[in-house]
Amino acid sequence: MSRRDYLFSKFGISILTLLFVLVLDFVLFRVLPGDPVRAVIGRNIRISAEVQESLRAQFGLDKPIFPDQFIDTMGQWARGNLGVSWSLRRPVGEILISKLWNTLLLIGLGQILSIVLGVILGLLAGWKRKTPFDVGALTFSLIAWATPTFWLGIILLVAGSAWFGLPTGGIVSPENVGKPLYTIIPDVARHLVLPTLTFTILYLGEYMLIMRSAILEVLSEDYILTARAKGMSHFQVLVKHGLRNAMLPMITIIALNLGFTVSGAIYIETVFSYDGLGNLVQTALVKQDYPLLQGAFLLLAVSVIVANMLADFLYTYLDPRVKAN
Hints:
Blueprint (H helix, E strand, L loop, with lengths): L2 H26 L7 H6 L7 H11 L5 H14 L13 H36 L4 H15 L2 H15 L21 H35 L2 H8 L4 H38 L5 H11 L2 H29 L7
Helix pairs in contact: 1-12, 5-6, 5-8, 5-10, 5-12, 6-8, 7-8, 7-10, 8-10, 9-10, 10-11, 10-12, 11-12
C-alpha cells in the first residue's frame, strides 16, 4: 500500500469515528439521571408546573428523543450551530472559544515543558543505564506517573501559596480583571506557575519512562553497533541514529496526550479554580446543560481524533516503512 493510500485510509477511519462520536455525544448526556430543567433553574426555586413545561418546550425537551430531538440536533451541528447554553443563555460556540484559549495556554505550556524535559531526561537515563542518574530518573518517573492529579495539585497549591506566596486560583488578580493582556503578563505568569507545574510533573514522568524504554531498545540494534564501529562519538550515535527512531513511540503518546489533556485539565482547573474549558465542563455537568456539554464533548473528541491523524502523518514522515496492516 502506498503512503497516499495509507493516509487516505486513516482519514476515512477518522471520519467514521467522528460520525460515531456525534451519535454518542447526543445520547450520552440524555441518559443522565435527573431533570435538566430543575438543574438549570435551581432546586430551591419554586416554579409552577406550567412554567417548567414551557421551559421544556423552549429547550426542545418536550419532543421524543428519537427521532425528533436527534434530527434537530444533527441538523444544527451540520450547519455549524452548537446551540445556546441553557444556563448561560449564550451561544455554545462563543462560550467554548472564550474558555478554550485559557485552557490552551495552560496545557500548551505544560506540554512543551514536559515533552522537552521528558525527551532529554529520558534520553540521558537510557544512555546512562544502571547509573545513579538512571535510578533517580526512573524512580521519579514512576512516582510522577502514578500520582493522582488532584492530590498533586492540592500539595503544590498549599506549598506554593505558603512558601512562595503564589496565587491559589484564577487567571489574574481581581484588580487586573478586564485589563489588556500585555499590561498584566507578570500577573498571568504568577497565576500559571502552580497549575503549569502540576501539569508538567504529571506528564514528565510518562514521557521520561517511554523515552528511556525506547532509547534502550534502539541502542541494542545492530546499526547502532555499526555506527560506533565507524568511530562516531557517543553523542553522534545518540542524536543522529538513536533519537529519531526512539521518537516513534513518543509521537504516539504525545499525540494521544495532546487530545486527552484538554479533558484531563478538568482536575487541574478545578483544584486551582482556573477559568478554562475543564472548569466549564464541570459547571455544565452540574447544571445538566445539554447543549454546552455536547459542544464541549464534541470539541474534546475532535481534538483526540485530529491528534491521532497528526500522529499517523508524522509516522509516515519519520518512518517510511510504516504501512497499514
